[in-house]
Amino acid sequence: MPELPEVETTRRGIESLVSNKTISGVTIHNAGLRWPVPDFLPEILPGQRVLAVERRSKYLLFRLDRGTLIIHLGMTGHLRLVSPGAERRKHDHVEIHFDDETTLCYNDPRRFGAMLWTGDDPLQHERLRDLGPEPLGESFTPEYLYERSRRRSVAVKVFLMDAKIVVGVGNIYANEALFRAGISPQRPAGKVSRAGFEKLVVAVKEILTAAIAAGGTTIRDFADTEGRPGYFSQELRVYGRAGMPCVSCHGPIRQVRLGQRSTYFCPSCQV
Is 229 marked active-site? Predict the structure, then answer.
């Protein structure tokens, strides 16, 4: 599943290709995504210009003249801009055509993504309004996490992945940040000290910043390509390394399940 760094890489790649373009038409081949694609998009989108492409959590916000197109990539979705006459690919569910004859294609084999519309403030949309702060934003602080975690018995990794606490820290990066901070993912969130959260906030910001930089070099062009950023795989220290030696102490990396997600950690380095 695309996580925050991959979605941010997609945002940057797509924005550079579609900004200031005017939509000339919309083709819906399959409206059956996680939530149905609104059937009125072919009527209201043409004539509107793309003012900006922003991101909130894992949602892409295409700011247009009269509203916002909200896109979620789900587990397997991706976007690409194709040239005139390009052949439609399997699982291209929605096509947004521009006045320069290029087309933005939304492709999603498993159809767990979404394409929604709002004419109001998109941050107040029902899918976005209850989300926590951005992990790279100023409001994501050790004090914030410490206060939200008090009297919480849930494992700190599950707490960190709760989108109402903080958005976009998916499974891969939660594992990596907890390792960097030296905190066991199994420790109850309410038992993590203020000093522990100071380390964890720094680790989350460093990991995500580095992953965005790495993803940005993986796909250089979303035009006529698969438009799939790569994961931060070359830098992973614990994720997917069960039984392998820890890069710090050389003891074996353990794997458990927390919150129905695979969790990797070093029992010696993370306490």
Answer: no
Q: Is 80 a catalytic residue?
A: no
Confirm whether 261 is a catalytic residue.
yes
pLDDT of residue 217: 46
Please say if 129 is a catalytic residue. no
CATH topology of domain 4-124: N-terminal domain of MutM-like DNA repair proteins (3.20.190)
Which one from 55, 58, 157, 199 is the annotated catalytic residue? Answer: 58
Task: Choose the catalytic residue: 2, 135, 185, 229.
Answer: 2
When the candidates are 2.40.160.20, 3.40.50.300, 1.10.8.50, 3.30.470.20, the CATH number that belongs to 142-265 is 1.10.8.50
Q: Which of 12, 205, 237, 261 is catalytic?
A: 261
Q: Would you state the pLDDT for residue 200?
A: 98
With a cut of 50, which residues of the chain have pLDDT below it?
A: 217-220
Q: 3-state SS of the chain? A: CCCHHHHHHHHHHHHHHHCCCEEEEEEECCCCCCCCCCCCHHHHCCCCEEEEEEEECCEEEEEECCEEEEEECCCCCEEEEECCCCCCCCCEEEEEEECCCCEEEEECCCCCCEEEEECCCHHHCCCCCCCCCCCCCCCCCHHHHHHHHCCCCCEHHHHHCCCCCCCCCCHHHHHHHHHHHCCCCCCEHHHCCHHHHHHHHHHHHHHHHHHHHHHHHHCCCCECCCCCCCCCHHHCCCCCCCCCECCCCCCECEEEEECCEEEEECCCCCC
